[in-house]
């Protein structure tokens, strides 16, 4: 298979971790980055990371471009993706990581700018959404623009799939206890989203809305009207956890629920869904490439049809790894 050439638009938390994921893979390389920061600053942010540690390789700047592990990565600073000229460096797929160009219309700008396909690193109002291990096989070769959904959807969807396939979901409520992200403020200030979202991320547990549960119904249509959820933003830098309370159709036991997740983690969802019986905490999952790690010890049973299941995810590294997996899958179609 020919090497997949990736362009990254937006070199923030996800953009940088997409690159970190790619440098450890054969047959994939980052050939271009478009970001408004100057190249020296981009190099610094790639080299040093407060959560994930120093970059395991070499990073330098030469002639206005990045050199990563000896390979040149073209740097541009175009506000309009139509002007990036992705085709000049042979980009096959753009990882759209700005959080701005998330619709079919705006992501099309990358195609207009020379890219062949686009994977959006956020939920999309109208682009088809895919979650690895859940519905990624529904991607068609003709799909030029796809969404990798959200980090929380990538955690929740495998959970919902296993429960629904094994026992049938009657109804469910999700809470994600979510690490701080770049959109939050360190001290109190105005927030475009809602008043509470503008309060200090360092000092508060902040209730927030999330479209993650609704997005799961897009990737598992059978759950339409059966699943919704909310979030609490908490003062940690990375790693989040999904708490899913579910009423199932088929009577079972928590032991059988655990068995279903263990089987899935070793079978069709291997590398996507994890399973642990260790007494772990959030920091133990920093850098984990899987998007949903079922915590067997944390779940509980109220009665044979009512359960709580808990699953961890590195909302940065896990998500970025699966975005690259999705890009690789699309490239092979």
Q: Roughly what is the average pLDDT, rounded to an integer?
A: 98
CATH first level of the largest domain:
Alpha Beta
Q: Please give the oligomerization state of what you see.
A: single chain
Give the SSE string: EHEHEEEEHEEHEEHEEHEEEEH
Q: Unreliable runs, pLDDT <50, ≥5 residues?
A: none
Q: Level of helix content?
A: 10-25%
What's the tally of helices? 7
* Annotated CATH topology of the largest domain: Dihydrodipicolinate Reductase, domain 2
Overall morphology: globular
By secondary-structure content and strand pairing, the structural class works out as alpha/beta
Strand content: 25-35%
| Biggest β-sheet description | 8 strands, mixed
Please give the order of strands in the largest beta sheet. Answer: 3-4-5-2-1-6-7-8
Please state the CA-atom Rg, rounded to the nearest Å.
20 Å
CATH superfamily of the largest domain: Dihydrodipicolinate Reductase, domain 2
**How does CATH name the architecture of the largest domain?**
2-Layer Sandwich
Q: N- to C-terminal separation?
A: 11 Å
Number of domains: 2
What is the β-strand count? 16
Description:
With 333 residues, the protein is of the alpha/beta class. The chain folds into two domains: 4-127, Rossmann fold (3-Layer(aba) Sandwich); 151-315, 2-Layer Sandwich (Dihydrodipicolinate Reductase, domain 2), CATH 3.30.360. The protein contains seven helices and 16 strands. The protein has helices spanning 13-22, 39-47, 104-112, 151-167, 212-219, 254-266, 317-332; strands at 4-9, 28-34, 59-62, 65-68, 71-76, 93-96, 117-120, 145-147, 169-179, 206-209, 227-234, 240-248, 273-276, 292-295, 300-303, 306-313. An eight-stranded mixed β-sheet has the order 3-4-5-2-1-6-7-8, sandwiched between helices. β4 (65-68) and β5 form a beta hairpin. α1 crosses α7, α4 crosses α5 (212-219) and α4 crosses α6 (254-266).
């Amino acid at each position: 298979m020919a090497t997949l050439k990736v362009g990254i638009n937006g070199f923030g938390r996800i953009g940088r971790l997409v690159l970190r994921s790619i440098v450890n893979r054969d047959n994939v390389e980052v050939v271009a980055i478009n970001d408004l920061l100057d190249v020296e600053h981009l190099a610094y942010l790639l080299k040093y990371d407060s959560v994930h540690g120093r970059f395991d390789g070499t990073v330098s700047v030469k002639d206005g471009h990045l050199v990563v592990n000896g390979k040149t990565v073209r740097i541009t600073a175009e506000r309009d993706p139509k002007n990036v000229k992705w085709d000049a460096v042979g980009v096959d797929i753009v990882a759209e990581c700005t959080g701005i160009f998330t619709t079919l219309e705006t992501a099309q700008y990358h195609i207009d700018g020379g890219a062949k396909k686009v994977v959006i690193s956020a939920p999309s109002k109208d682009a088809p959404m895919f979650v690895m291990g859940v519905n990624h096989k529904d991607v068609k070769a003709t799909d030029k623009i796809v969404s990798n959904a959200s980090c929380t959807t990538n955690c929740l969807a495998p959970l919902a799939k296993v429960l629904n396939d094994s026992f049938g979901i009657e109804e469910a409520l999700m809470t994600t206890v979510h690490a701080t992200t770049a959109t939050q403020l360190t001290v109190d200030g105005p927030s475009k989203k809602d008043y509470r979202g503008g309060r200090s991320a360092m000092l508060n547990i902040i209730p927030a809305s999330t479209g993650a549960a609704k997005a799961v119904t897009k990737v598992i249509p059978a759950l339409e009207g059966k699943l919704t959820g909310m979030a609490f933003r908490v003062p940690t830098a990375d790693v989040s956890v999904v708490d899913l309370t579910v009423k199932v159709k088929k009577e079972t036991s928590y032991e059988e629920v655990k068995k279903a997740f263990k089987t899935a983690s070793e079978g069709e969802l291997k590398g996507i869904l994890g399973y642990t019986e260790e007494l772990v905490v959030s920091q133990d999952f920093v850098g984990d490439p899987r998007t949903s790690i079922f915590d067997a010890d944390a779940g509980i049973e109220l009665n044979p049809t009512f359960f709580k299941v808990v699953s961890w995810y590195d909302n940065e590294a896990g998500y970025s790894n699966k975005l690259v997996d999705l890009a690789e899958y699309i490239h092979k179609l």
